Amino acid sequence: MKPATKLSIESEPDAGRDREFDFTDTDFEHIRALVYRHAGISLSNAKRNLVYSRLARRLRRLNLVSFTAYTDYLEGHLDTELTEFLNSITTNLTSFFRENHHFETLRNQVLPELMAGNSGRRIRIWSAGCSTGEEPYSIAMTVKETVPASSTCDVKILATDLDTNVLQKARDGVYDAERVQQIPPARLRHWMRRGSGANTGQVRVISELQDMIQFNQLNLMENWPMRGPFDVIFCRNVVIYFDKDTQRRLFERFADLMAPDAYLFVGHSETLYKVTDRFELQGQTVYRKKY
Ligand SMILES: C[S@@+](CC[C@H](N)C(=O)[O-])C[C@H]1O[C@@H](n2cnc3c(N)ncnc32)[C@H](O)[C@@H]1O
Q: Most buried residue among 29, 109, 125, 237 by CB atoms closer than 10 A?
């Protein structure tokens, strides 16, 4: 199969010639509309080959011969196939302590502020779009390393994602050893256990971290069952796939669910500039709720 390229298929006369399944302009437009409607994700023309390769697996699994047959199937079986469809489309790239300066800000500024003079305080953190769990586990390690065991603060982390496959991986907390290579050895020894026998080459996060985190499937485009308020929200490398209107609505909803002065962390290429004025910039991709 051809690798995904940055060019749209319209500008590649030969693209698609060797394709296993028919994939027309109409199919792509149809899929693009469904992805936008159900996940808020805006797919550019450049994502056309990616969409083909991600969904071709579903067509094979369902023994379908064309993308038209697939979209027909999808619309007739939304209750079962929509989850598989969205799981195939989402991009789940993540890593432990990604954009480490956020975790340093959490450790040095946010948590000390939240703990100050507030014994018994509830501290609520939301990792929205948590993918396979590296982000909420990095938050949990930072919290455990910063909030003294003697503290009466009650810290809980909510970790949510649309994609049920990545969420299961997050809940399991088992990773290939190469995914944790960049974690310093002392920290690794403290918070993870190396597998042996059949589990050689894997690590598992310890239950003390898992116990702090509630993993829930949640589509950011739909209703949210939580009442908040959240003191910190991490929503990093998620809105990059949304258009500005969708981003605006999402950040409004975040602000409504956050405590006064709460912190919001976004991805390295994301900005609230010209999206919402309900937050003010505090540092590199770190915001604070204004009102
Ligand atoms: C690139 S990952 C980012 C993971 C992590 N936050 C990080 O920065 O490393 C984006 C995640 O957002 C999730 N996502 C995309 N659209 C979503 C939606 N409408 N509702 C909830 N999660 C969504 C995807 O499933 C994916 O796991």
A: 125
For ligand 1, atom 26, which residue shows the shortest CA distance? 92
AA letter at 41: I
Is the CB–ligand 1 distance for residue 216 below 6 Å? no
pLDDT tens profile 44-98: 999 999 999 999 999 999 999 999 999 999 999 999 999 999 999 999 999 999 9
Structural element, H or E, at residue 255: helix 244-256
> 64 and 70 in contact (C-beta within 8 Å)?
yes
Q: Which residue has the tokens 């290579």?
A: 181
* 133 close to ligand 1 (CB < 6 Angstrom): no
CA of 5 to the centre of ligand 1 (A): 22
Q: By three-state DSSP, how is residue 154 classified?
A: strand
Whether the model pTM is above 0.90 = yes
Please write the tens of the pLDDT for every residue from 124-181. Answer: 999 999 999 999 999 999 999 999 988 889 999 999 999 999 999 999 999 999 999 9
CA 270 to centroid of ligand 1, rounded, Å = 13
Alpha carbons 88 and 56: distance in angstroms, whole number: 10
- Name the residue of 131, 134, 270 whose CB sits within 8 Å of the most ligand 1 atoms, as the mutation to test its pocket: 131
Say yes or no: CB of residue 221 within 6 Å of ligand 1.
yes
221 Cα to the center of ligand 1, angstroms: 12
Q: How far apart are CA 120 and CA 123, in angstroms?
A: 9
Contact (Cβ atoms closer than 8 angstroms) between residue 129 and residue 160: yes
